[in-house]
Design a protein that fits this description.
With about 190 residues, the protein is of the alpha/beta class. Helices cover about 30% and strands about 15% of the residues.
């Protein structure tokens, strides 16, 4: 499959088509194409895509060069049928945004504004004491418990970046914790988990 040109991509972007960015969370966070939502191939890609995007509508997948086939195959297995790809390298001369991130070692500073976007089952097993559970799948339909300035986390940081980027498309600016709970277990021993 041929990737969209920058001009084709911009035309679809103006039509407010669904934009999924499958790049790793670190790459995505520092160079976000406006109105795109991250569902990293390195995370629960299919789950996040199915939770966030409408399978019946056209979806443009922003990916790294050489990862187009994997991105498509994994989405098609979930029932997505109208998919185009766009090579992120084609966008390098255009404007991007960023999403704020917090280091796991500084997590203790944010406990009062943290939200855990892991699956409810995972939250039951392990979470930062006193932090509210707002599973990604629920957050998509009702994000009223999230405010500007909140700090999100999940097990490894994939769902929290998906949630942060989704919320940004809704005008809410939040941060995520790099590496999620896994990193906090190592780098933030003072937290009650």
């Amino acid at each position: 499959m041929t990737s969209l040109s920058a001009e084709e991509f911009k035309a679809l972007q103006n039509e407010e088509v669904q934009l999924l960015d499958s790049r790793p969370t670190n790459d995505f966070a520092s160079s976000v194409i406006a109105n795109s939502v991250n569902a990293s191939l390195n995370g629960s890609y299919e789950y996040m895509a199915s939770s966030i995007f409408n399978k019946e509508e056209h979806l443009v997948v922003i990916c790294e060069e050489g990862r187009e086939g994997e991105s498509l195959l994994r989405l098609e297995s979930e029932g997505f049928t109208d998919i185009s790809t766009f090579n992120f390298n084609t966008w390098k001369d255009n404007e991007t945004l960023s999403i704020g991130r917090c280091k796991a070692k500084d997590a203790h500073k944010y406990v009062d504004v943290m939200k855990d976007v892991s699956n409810a089952e995972d939250w039951e097993v392990l979470h930062v004491k006193g932090v509210k559970s707002v599973p990604l799948i629920d957050l998509i339909d009702d994000f009223s418990s999230i405010s500007n300035g909140d700090v999100l986390y999940c097990g490894n940081g994939h769902k929290s970046m998906a949630a942060a980027s989704f919320l940004r498309t809704r005008g809410i600016k939040v941060k995520d914790i790099i590496g999620g709970l896994s990193a906090m277990l190592v780098d933030a021993p003072e937290l009650e988990i």
